[in-house]
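Running this now, will post back.
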Amino acid sequence: MDNLIRRTLTGVFIVIFVLGGFWLHPYSFFCTGLVLLAGTQYEYYLLIRNTGAKPQMIAGMIAGIAIYTISALTAAGIAGSNMLLAAIPVISLIMIFELYRKQEKPFDSIAHTLFSILYTAVPFSLFPFSAFSHTGMESLLAHNGIVFSPGIVVGFFLLLWANDTGAYLVGVSIGKHRLMERISPKKSWEGFFGGLFISLAAAWLLSSWLGVVDKMGWMIIALIISVAGTYGDLAESMLKRSLGVKDSGTIMPGHGGFLDRFDSAVIAFPLVYLYIALFG
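Update: finished.
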């Protein structure tokens, strides 16, 4: 019972922090995305360091935060798109720094340092591009001079959590056919389709309120979230299984770490943004 209460309270806090942060104001939107990025990237580096590899944690996190910040400034129209080219020397410097670290397996270090940027920093750096210059759901606090709607990101997490809740409830109740037992023994096909149904229903009900794209667009986004989010969860399970750990961290009692809570987002959101950029 104590574990259930702790898990419930933590879950409520996560929902308030994520939805409130993204919905409140463009500044809080930026800060919330930054916290998620830094948390997931930091946990990834800690997991890898436990294997004996030594990625460039500080340089990698600076690069990730820089890419996110430049993306936000570019999306808001404060900086030109050429600013994104600053990522090129940053990545080059990571390879140069490795020459002076004298590691036994330098390219293992480089690979894990750069992969963390691709795995966590790049997906979260797409958040600002989905909000600035878009109209739809308004932020809770007024802002002047900026076209901004948090609708896509807020809707994304609502549908992601609806999918997770549906998959869990259906999977626990009637799940018999394993989805990918080698990676995640508890996931079932019944749970997957249950999550998909709940996510589609939520998209249908919330589409008018969220705006940005039409009802059919939100239904397609729900489908992308259900499929790609499941793969994101499985990919992180594959990472943890290969490292012999149960959770990526302990910062969220009853829920694990940042990577445990947002593993679905790092694969699902880039595909959602791709859909919006092409068809939204």
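The chain has a mean pLDDT of 89. More later if anyone needs it.
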